[in-house]
Specification:
single chain, 15% strand, binds zinc ion, 65 residues, globular, Ribosomal Protein L24e, Chain: T, 2 helices, alpha+beta
């Protein structure tokens, strides 16, 4: 990895596995599926279910240092 990637939604540098999604032929990079969903759907509020998934994905894909 180049180490220059960062999440398009929250702007955090991506240290773990990036979530790469192609939307309308354009590549987007997110730190987690949660950010992808927020960006994609432009979610105004966060549901309890999303929040749970957020923490689950966070723990797995974004290790803190
Ligand atoms: Zn993010």
């Amino acid at each position: 990895m180049s180490g220059k990637m960062k999440c398009e939604y929250c702007g955090r540098p991506i240290k773990g596995e990036p979530e790469i999604r192609v939307r309308r032929g354009k590549k987007h990079i997110y730190c987690s599926e949660f950010c992808f969903r927020l960006h994609f759907y432009d979610v105004p509020t966060i549901s309890y279910e999303d929040l749970q998934e957020f923490y689950r994905l966070r723990a797995v894909s974004v290790p803190f240092r």
